[in-house]
Structure prediction request, 85 residues.
Amino acid sequence: MIDAIASGADISKAAAGRALDSMVEAVTDALKKGDTVNLVGFGSFMVRERAARTGRNPRTGETINIAAAKNPSFKAGKALKDAVN
Prediction:
């Protein structure tokens, strides 16, 4: 990814690496705050809440409680979907 950014933006690999790290950190920080990150034409990063539930240990058959969790999620934008298809 760093090589692609460096060649596409005509910058050094070190600068491309810092830019990529900065972007990933910005998205992570926004998701920690509960915000949604929209990249027009590419897609949206968001946090989805998963409720607590009960599960079953497949080895013993014992019922276990699975805690609620927040999961990062990505929804592809129309331009990305069209480019892939």
Observations:
- The helical segments are 2-9, 13-32, 78-84.
- The chain has a mean pLDDT of 95.
- The chain has two domains: 1-35, 36-85.
